[in-house]
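User: Can you help me understand a structure? I only have the sequence.
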Amino acid sequence: MSPDSDIALDGEGPLHQQIRRAIARPILAGRWPPGRRIPSEHELMQRFGVSRMTVNRALASLANEGLIARKRKAGTVVAIPSAERAVFEIWDISAEIARSGATHSMTLIRREVGPAAPAEADVLRVPADTPILRLVLCHASDGEPIQFEDRLVNIAAAPGILSARLEDIAPGRWLLDHVPWTEAEHAIRAAEANAEIAAHLKIRRGSACLVVERHTWRGDTPITFARLTSPAGAQVLVGRFRPSAG
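Assistant: Let's start by predicting it. Here is the structure, written out as tokens:
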């Protein structure tokens, strides 16, 4: 069984929801890897002083979300994460293009490392001077520009990203594959293309665009902020959600 700190009730809401969150946290944070056995129903009943029905309700919810797998002989274990689910919920442009039958390509326009300027720190929600990676890219579908990406990454929250070949793999895809996240937020707005965006997307300056601004966190630690700009009418997938119980 895990250390006590790994599964603790937070005192908010019904007990079955508290147990659900207590188990989801170490899974989503990466502390409990796929295949790891989680405490049995009996262990959880004793630990939290609750009924079997309450525990079963929490586990059933986690199983429905795909976080755990309940096996008759092996017991309950952490499920193998569904890459498709993660890609769908946090939109990965390279996967979306591939799913449509087209070929994804991208151009890495700028890549810079340095302390966050006040405006950058504010948008990424980190202290000023936090070491960050700045990325500017343009994604294309069958050679046709479809999305301009402006991204800030908290280097401390994404170990290994400085050595990643981000000219070959989309930063969003790399982060999905290597950095567990626990919360995401999307904001959607309309905007006019400025000169740089218009040049890379091959549209007229001032053309209508759809902008998706996306934050992701691991616990209370910000991971990345991305501003994704697409010409009006381009297919996008956006939302705001928590993958675990809230």
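Now, to help you interpret it: Residues 15-28 form the longest helix (14 residues). The first strand starts at residue 68 and ends at 71. Let me know which part you'd like to focus on.
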